[in-house]
Amino acid sequence: MRFAPGATRAAAAAALVGLPLFPVLPWVGVAVALFGGFVLWFHRDPERTPPESGVVSPADGRVSVIREEEDDEGNERVRVGVFMNVTDVHVNRAPLAGTVETVEHRPGAHLPAFTKESERNERVRFDFGAFEVDLIAGAFARRIHPYAASGESFERGERIGHVSFGSRADVLLPAEYTVEDVRVTENETVRAGETVVAER
């Protein structure tokens, strides 16, 4: 099993803390060891195979947002957001092939990622020019880990980052896509890099 970067180091640190506690505080030692195992499991990173066409989901989880909005140029665009709960894989993937123009970190709140108020949350935005991907921190997420940098090119379904412990991932579809092109519904379960969320 592959794991997100840094996961094995965090799990090993928990094990190093927990092992010496077993002789004197067995239950505390067990709890710390179990936490280390949970951290490793949470950051699992399974292989995914994208379908032949379509915009694929940037995240595992449940579709929580489908809406039209204006972009910075005043154009109507469609946003599809996926809420990741604690049991979902949290490695995020490129919904389409493209080259990253900018990666922007925006500080903010840490409100539940499935609520409307999460628009004020901390996030990292990948601007691919024709489309954007936002990784949004949730109530417990405190670390967004982008793998992409400006100028890097990615294939559809390729890993672009991960968020630790609950969050949301949005894709702002290219301008030519409309709501009629969306192939998922709110509350539908999707898989990063495999489920088609929109197609023309």
From TrEMBL:
UniProt GO MF annotations: carboxy-lyase activity
Domain of life: Archaea
GO BP terms, alphabetized: phospholipid biosynthetic process
Secretion signal, residue range per the UniProt entry: none
Pfam family, one: PS_Dcarbxylase
Entry-linked InterPro entries: PS_Dcarbxylase, PSD-A
Spans through the membrane: 24-42
Keywords: Cell membrane, Decarboxylase, Lipid biosynthesis, Lipid metabolism, Lyase, Membrane, Phospholipid biosynthesis, Phospholipid metabolism, Pyruvate, Transmembrane, Transmembrane helix, Zymogen
Name of this protein: Protein sorting system archaetidylserine decarboxylase
Biological source species: Halospeciosus flavus
